[in-house]
Amino acid sequence: MQNSNEDPHPAERWPGRRPTRRAHPHPHPHPHVQTIAGGKRTLLATALFLLLFAAGCEDGSEQLRDFEVDTRIALTDQDGRPFTLQSLLKENKIVLLYFGFTHCPDFCPATLSKLQKVYRILGNRSRHLQTVLVSVDPARDTPAKLKSYVDYFKIDAIALTGTPAEIADVAARYGAHYERQSLETTDPANPDNPGAESYTVDHSTGLYLIDAEGRVRHVFKHGDRPQQIAETLQFILPFF
To answer: Burial of 214 by CB count in 10 Å (0-12 exposed, 13-18 middle, 19+ buried)?
Structure first.
C-alpha cells in the first residue's frame, strides 16, 4: 500500500559557531557580589522552569490514558531468542510498539526513520525508550531478515516474529489490523522462482506507547511529527 505523500526510502537521506562571551560594559567592583546576584538569577530561572514544566505536565498528561489493553507478548526476537514484554518492563523501559514487515515499501521505513529523529530530540533520555517491531509477515520475516532490517535504522530496536497464530493473537489484543494482498508480479524475495506467490501486507500504522507498568497510554498516528512524539514521551520518560 504505497502512500504517494511519503518518501518510500526516507532513511537513505540520513547521512556552529559557539557564541562569543561579551564582557559586561561595567564590571561589578565586587566580584563576589556579582556571583551572589548571578546565583539568585539562576535560582529564579530554575524555579520558573520547574513551574512551567509542572504546568506543561499537567496539560500534556491529558493526552495520556489507560487503553486497558492486554499487552502481554511472547514471541521470538531477531536473535532467535524467546522474548516477553515483561522482560522490558522489569528494566523500567518505556516501549514504542509498531506492527509492520520488512518488505513494507512506505509506512514502515517512514516510521522507523521518524523514530531516529525522536531519539535525537530526546537525547540521553532515549536510553529509557525501547522500540519494538512486530512482524505481520512471519512467512518471510525470519529472525535474520528482521535483524538486518532494524539494524539499518540504528535505534537499537527489537524485532519480533512467531507463528501466524501467535502474531494474530497479539495483533488482535492491540486492535491492530493486517491483511495479505496478492500481487500479479514475481515475488521480489524469490526472483529465481517465478511460481512463488508475490504479495504485500496492508496493515494499520498506529504506534503504541506502553509505560513501565505495561499499560498502553497513547497511540500515535502515522502523520504525527517527530517533535510531537518526543513532546508526549517527555511526560512519561524518567529524567535520569
So the answer is: middle
For residue 188, the one-letter residue type is P
Q: What residues make up the domain containing 123?
A: 66-233
Helix, strand, coil % in the chain, rounded to nearest 5: 40, 20, 40
Residue with cell 530530540: 121
Asked whether the beta carbons of 60 and 235 are under 8 A apart, the reply is: yes
What are the C-alpha distances in Å from 161 to residues 76, 146, 188?
5, 8, 21
C-alpha cell at 82: 524467546
Rounded distance between C-alpha atoms, residue 180 and residue 11, angstroms: 25
Do 94 and 180 lie in one domain? The reply is: yes
Profile the chain (240 residues) by mean pLDDT over runs of 10 residues.
44 38 36 39 42 41 81 97 96 97 97 98 96 98 98 96 98 97 72 69 97 96 97 90
CA distance 38 to 155: 40
List Cα–Cα distances, 204 to 51, 100, 171, 219, in angstroms: 39, 8, 10, 12
pTM for the whole structure: 0.71
Let me know if residue 71 belongs to a domain. Answer: yes
